Amino acid sequence: METFTKLTGVAAPLKITNVDTDMIIPKQYLKTIKRTGLGSGLFAEMRYNEDGSENADFVLNQPAYRKAQILVAEDNFGCGSSREHAPWALLDFGIRCVISTSFADIFYNNCFKNGILPIVVSKADLAKLMDDAERGANATVSIDLESQEIRGPDGGVISFDVDAFRKHCLMNGLDDIGLTMVKAKSIDTFESATAAARPWL
After folding, report:
1. Which of its termini does the chain have fewer beta carbons within 10 Å around, N or C?
2. What pLDDT score was predicted for residue 194?
3. Domain spans of the chain?
């Protein structure tokens, strides 16, 4: 998993409440178990018209936000069914951080396990960040995970909380497999001792 320490990028405003996982990545894209290639399906029902052409009104289709790395969203982001394809699609598009006032638990956990930082802020702070994000190409926001700070384009700073263990995993690029491999030497020692003590197993 790619490490997350600091991120500076364009923040896109998504002024929709209760964005569920089917909105993030519609069900027709769930046939694959690959983590790549899902970016084209991100928010597909809002990004594309029925004829497959781009919906020019959708924020991620607007020139200033095509390469956004941060998403500023309204309440209850990632609700609905538990599909890991949702963070996969965000990551494949290039989104490394989602900021909202609240997240659905399963989506929130899946983000950390896939290298995305979900940040919970107050309604007042979200309003400030949404205003920053609406500046188009000038909507550059910096995220510093070590200091747990969001810095806006005007230099304003917002602090955020994050679980210490999840912070450690993101900063060191450790998903569940990575966490296991950190203990590889101890596992090998245990297996060798077990094989010697119980050769019949």
Report:
1. C
2. 80
3. 6-173
Digit-coded pLDDT (tens) for 122-178: 999 999 999 999 998 888 999 999 999 999 998 899 999 999 999 999 999 987 777
Q: Are 77 and 70 in contact (CB under 8 A)?
A: no
Q: Who's near 27: CB < 8 A, 6+ residues apart?
A: none
Q: For domain 6-173, is the CATH number 3.20.19.10?
A: yes
Give SS3 for 14.
strand
Q: DSSP class of residue 147?
A: T
148: closest CA among 160, 156, 164, 140?
160
Beta bridge mates, 141: 9
CA distance 58 to 56: 6
Whether residue 95 contacts residue 74, with contact meaning beta carbons closer than 8 Å, is answered with: no
Q: What tokens were used for 7?
A: 């991120």
DSSP code per residue over 46-112: HHB-TTS-B-TTSGGGSGGGTT--EEEE-SSBTBSS--THHHHHHHHHT--EEEES-B-HHHHHHHH
Beta strands in 101-159 (DSSP E): 117-120, 140-144, 149-151, 157-159
With 0-12 CB in 10 A as exposed, 13-18 as middle and 19+ as buried, what is 175?
Answer: middle
What is the spatial distance between Cα 83 and Cα 25, in angstroms, rounded to a whole number? 9
